[in-house]
Write a structure and sequence with these properties.
By secondary structure, the protein is of the alpha+beta class. 28% of the residues lie in helices and 23% in strands. The protein contains 23 helices and 33 strands. The chain binds FE2/S2 (inorganic) cluster (FES) (2 copies). One FE2/S2 (inorganic) cluster is lined by residues 101-106, 138-141, 353, 403, 643.
Length: 918
């Protein structure tokens, strides 16, 4: 039954507005669904994330908590009301200039909260900004550039460089090409994209049990009760292969389970109909009979006392990884000093602010998917298998993606809407709720790690032994990637001759663990950095000197036998950090001497390295840069920008390779019909791999243009209105584009680029060349520990990163800030428990008040293989933060926490056990 509606009159963005709606309809839904103002985002619909923040009579409110009837006669201002006369407000301009928006899904809410503050307090200080914006969560930026932007309003600073001349785009602080759309609320995310035709809505019915058999009875009664219900999909409706997964040989996850579920939140049926009907049907309305089975826990699986969840994984071991160099056992036995550690980590939720959303529509014998994603080409191929189609019958048109961090690499709603649209012939839309998103999508792997290292009397590492078990949950997802990447990185960025590093990915009935910024390396870094601190102490060296003595240098061999020839910036990072680190240590020690109370301060240090791109696997990117008959230059980039800025980065690289100002390039975003496969946005690969493809495309088009003009290699290419001119010494000619043959899209010349990092397969001992390039970093963290309460407050982070070359320093800094914020979450507060905290109220991520000031130093040690020397930063930004914080807790209290997150109860218990509590 439809809810009764009433007339509601209010002022919206300065205009009298009248609408008929149910009085209890949430204001966020009124704005979006009834009034078409998609700038107000919905991240949780529960008052937890602040993405829906608007102004009600000038005060910020969560529009998801305000009933429509409450706005009667009042003034509502949304992000659409900030710009006027086609000009951005000073606040919007500041966000765009400072790189304060990455994916942009939180930006409208942030802007509205900041607008209220600025209306109240013309020139706020940082504490006031933190207070005012404290109700809006951002998962990308680490908040620092947001604070910078708000503080800059009214000041005439210009940190961006909007139009660098030809040849100087790389290295410029270019504003993101989507910045204006993001700050005006016109950037279209998954839930903002609506089919033009009338569409059906889909809602998955999911298992409440982690392990169960089930049967579905006669569904015909459901259609009689709910006339708006068009179809109920079950496993038998999948036209092709009812399995998906990351690896071609490891497809193990059903789109819709067939009689057996391995995880809570697994989809068993899908309701398709009009939106109200689908929302009104309760799961209990379906005739599903459950036979609940005991769930397989990580402990049970490790102990070998659980039934196998998959026939291909005896003992529930999905796969193992291994790297062996010489004889770690003998070298450990002979070492002068030894240290051992056990580390345990939990599930971590990606908590992107945009829940999964999108739609599918059938176009003849093809299917189109319009949804948020990190990997359009893998989605296309998987959907083809599921529908039993050829890949060219599937078109994936990604929307803007409101954060991913690895969690949107796996399929979610795409196969469901694709099957429904295919079978009904109607467009079908689906928007995950926050609890659904958190219950059903992948997480960071929980890890149980034991590690041991030994050094000689001078503090030189001689041996390293490591084993990590990773809970990969119900399905494989990226478990094999974690199992293979971790052993390579297990030693940390240090030269060790004798290494044995092994891993296992273990199936359980938990939520699948998949890709999450670092593929297991952040967990491993907690172990290797604890060992470095412990050995340093045993040798009588300070933590930095010990690391400096052992840091990888150019010419050193890694545990896989790869000799690092160039761009090994570990020593440079440590040397750059040393002065600040020593000063912070002195400051913390002075504080502790001066304060006798419960508060203790400490400074920790951690290093990391990270191989860019896939581990020992081909991962090519292709890119084209095309010249049209009207002189338009267009970069066709399939590299998904999920907030990390690849649209700007690719354009900067391609423009410099072609030799034109970056402002002369248009960019076509990913669309599997229009752009070539640039691989997935993961493994920190886009700048290095797709950047090389963009560079090659620019160089190829340059060669073709110069050949047409019979010009030398040094000639200038000058875009002019309607065409291209070439200046070669004294000669300047205009290309006669009209005489060139054009394709259907009017393109007359195509520059093509392809790059696949040169790696080799690893042998049975993990020996080989797993990556073509490595990023390095050192971070220091200062914290304050309340030894009475067990709370830990980060006070300062210093981050030094070797990025090869910073293509866009503003974006590199933004990635580092955001990675550090996620590292703080991993260290101190984030742990996901399936079925217990599937919302942003109980699952805590860092707020603007949790991220301290961050100082970033960039080391640019160009990698000859990188585009203009660049490597990657997405995952490296995060890895060192948690171990640096844990080291700081130890420095402050003498207690080493190795079970993360280091929540107050755990810290307090450890302090009590060590006799260090107040
Ligand atoms: S959508 Fe309203 S607070 Fe999250
Ligand atoms: S920019 Fe804030 S959530 Fe992505």
């Amino acid at each position: 039954m439809r809810a009764p509606e009433r007339r509601i009159a209010f002022t919206l963005n300065g205009r009298p507005t009248e609408v008929h709606a149910p009085p209890a309809l949430r204001l966020a839904e009124l704005l979006r669904d009834r009034l078409g103002l998609m700038g107000t985002k919905i991240g949780c619909n529960a008052g937890d994330c602040g993405a829906c923040t608007v102004l009600l009579d000038g005060r910020q409110v969560c529009a998801c908590l305000v009933a429509s009837a409450q706005v009667e006669g009042r003034h509502v201002t949304t992000v659409e009301g900030l710009a006027s006369g086609g000009r951005l407000s000073a606040l919007q301009e500041a966000f765009a200039r400072h790189g304060a928006a990455q994916c942009g899904i939180c930006t409208p809410g942030m802007l509205m909260a900041a607008a209220e503050l600025l209306a109240r307090t013309g020139r706020p200080n940082e504490a006031e900004v933190r207070d005012a914006l404290g109700g809006v969560l951002c998962r990308c930026t680490g908040y620092r550039k947001i604070i910078e932007a708000v503080l800059s309003v009214g000041r005439n600073d210009r940190p961006d460089d909007p139009s660098p001349p030809a040849g100087s785009a790389v290295g410029a602080r270019l504003r993101h090409p989507d910045a204006d759309a993001i700050v005006t609320g016109t950037h279209r995310f998954g839930a903002d994209a609506l089919p033009e035709e009338a569409f059906l809505t889909l809602r998955a019915v999911r298992s409440p049990h982690p392990h169960a058999r089930f049967s579905i009875g006669d569904l015909s009664g459901l259609f009689a009760r709910f006339p708006g219900l068009s179809r109920v999909l079950t496993a038998v409706d999948i036209p092709g292969q009812n399995l998906f997964g990351i690896y071609p040989t490891g497809k193990d996850q059903p789109v819709l389970a067939r009689g057996f579920v391995r995880m809570r939140g697994e989809a068993v049926a899908a309701l398709v109909g009009d939106a109200e009907t689908v929302a009104s049907i309760r799961d209990e309305d379906l005739p599903i009979t459950w036979e609940v089975l005991p769930p397989v826990t990580f402990e049970d699986a490790l102990a070998g006392r659980a039934p196998d969840l998959h026939p291909h994984a005896p003992g529930n071991v999905l796969c193992r990884g291994r790297v062996k160099a010489d004889d770690a056992a003998a070298a450990l036995a002979a070492a002068t000093h030894r240290a051992a550690v056990t580390v345990e980590t939990g599930f971590v939720e990606h908590a992107y602010i945009e829940p999964e959303a999108g739609y599918a529509r059938r176009v003849g014998d093809r299917i189109e998917i319009v949804a948020c994603t990190q990997t359009p080409y893998m989605d296309r191929d998987e959907i083809a298998l599921i529908l039993g189609l050829r890949p060219d019958q599937v078109r994936v048109i990604p929307t803007a993606t409101g954060g991913g961090f690895g969690g949107k690499l796996d399929l979610s709603l795409q196969p469901l809407v694709a099957v429904a649209a295919w079978l009904t012939g109607r467009p079908v839309r689906c928007v995950y709720t926050r609890p659904e998103s958190m219950a059903s999508t992948t997480k960071r792997h929980p890890a149980r790690i034991t590690a041991e290292a030994g050094c000689d009397a001078e503090g030189r590492l001689v041996a390293f032994r490591f084993h990590g078990d990773f809970n990969t949950g119900a399905y494989a997802s990226w478990g094999p990637t974690v199992a293979n990447r971790v052993p390579v990185h297990a030693t940390g960025p240090y030269a060790v001759a004798n290494v044995l590093a092994t891993t296992a990915a273990i199936h359980t009935n938990d939520t699948p663990a998949g890709a999450f910024r670092g593929f297991g390396v952040p967990q491993a870094a907690i172990a290797h950095e604890a060992l470095m601190d412990m050995l340093a102490e045993r040798c009588g060296l300070d933590p930095l000197s010990f690391r400096l003595r052992n840091a990888l240098r150019a010419g050193d061999a890694t545990a896989t036998g790869q000799v690092l020839a160039h761009s090994v910036g570990m020593v440079a990072c440590l040397e750059a950090l040393e002065g600040r680190w020593r000063a912070l240590r002195a400051e913390a020690e002075a504080f502790n001497r001066a304060h006798a109370g419960a508060l203790r301060r400490g400074v920790g240090l951690a290093c990391m390295w990270y191989g860019i791109g896939n581990t020992s696997m081909s991962n090519p990117s292709e890119m084209t840069l095309v010249l049209s008959r009207d002189g338009t230059l267009t970069l066709r980039s399939g590299a998904m920008d999920i907030g990390q800025g690849s649209r700007a980065i690719m354009a900067q690289i391609a423009a410099d390779a072609l030799g034109v100002p970056v402002s002369a390039l248009c960019i076509t975003g990913a669309d599997t019909d229009l752009t070539r496969d640039a691989g997935k946005t993961s493994a920190s690969r886009q700048t290095f791999v797709s950047g090389n493809a963009a560079k090659a495309a620019g160089e190829d088009l340059r060669r073709k243009i110069l050949a047409l003009a019979n010009a030398g290699a040094e000639a200038r290419i000058i875009p002019v209105p309607g065409g291209i001119e070439i200046e070669d010494g004294e000669r300047r000619v205009r290309l006669d584009l009209a005489r060139l043959e054009a394709d259907a899209a009017g393109v007359v010349l195509v520059g093509e680029g392809r790059f696949d990092p040169p790696t080799t397969a690893l042998d049975a001992d993990g020996r080989g060349i797993p990556y073509a390039a490595y990023a390095f970093a050192a971070q220091a963290a200062m914290v304050e520990v309340d030894t009475e309460l067990g709370t830990v407050r980060p006070l300062r982070i210093i981050a030094v990163h070797d990025v090869g070359r910073a293509v866009n320093p503003t974006q590199v800094e933004g990635q580092i800030h955001g990675g550090i914020a996620q590292g703080i979450g991993l260290a101190l507060m984030e742990e996901f428990f399936p079925g217990r905290n599937e919302n942003l109220h109980d699952y805590l991520i860092p707020t603007i008040g949790d991220v301290p000031p961050i100082e970033v130093m960039l080391i640019e040690d160009p990698d000859p293989l990188g585009p203009f020397g660049a490597k990657g930063i997405g995952e490296p930004a995060l890895i060192a933060t948690a171990p640096a914080i844990l080291g700081a807790i130890h420095h402050a209290t003498g207690v080493r926490i190795t079970r993360v997150p280091a929540t107050p109860d755990r810290v307090r218990a450890a302090l009590l056990a060590a006799g260090a509590a107040r």
